[in-house]
Amino acid sequence: MNDQKPLPALNEETREFWEGCRHHQLKFQKCTECGLIRWPPSIICPACHSLEQAWFPVEGKGTVFTFAVYHQPFHPAFKSDLPYVVAVIELKEGPHFLSNLVGCDHRLISCGMPVQVFWEDREEGFSIPKFVPVQ
Length: 135
Known about the structure:
By secondary structure, this protein is mainly beta. The chain folds into two domains: 12-57, no CATH class; 59-135, CATH 2.40.50. The protein has one helix and eight strands. A five-stranded antiparallel β-sheet has the order 6-5-4-7-8. It is globular.
């Protein structure tokens, strides 16, 4: 049984995102034509179909849009984290971002709850963006 948590897939579309995370900076693509900040990254803007984009740092604050509490592990390596919360975070800048919500009792989580990014530094050189409630 593999007890190592899986690492994110690194490819050309996500490389800039993960490099930003390594420096504790949450970055998303921004269309240089219409200004849409988007996630996930793509070669074409879904709003105006432009091919022009730049990577843009965001503040890392938002609210819980929706969430699920896992009582069975998705992967054996997450068994010690049970129960854990997977949430869609609506970032202040607009994009919705799927992540974990940590640092609170899962029974106290609600949609609309204010959250901010928290960095989990992994030995493998990755920093994983997770979210915690705003105190």
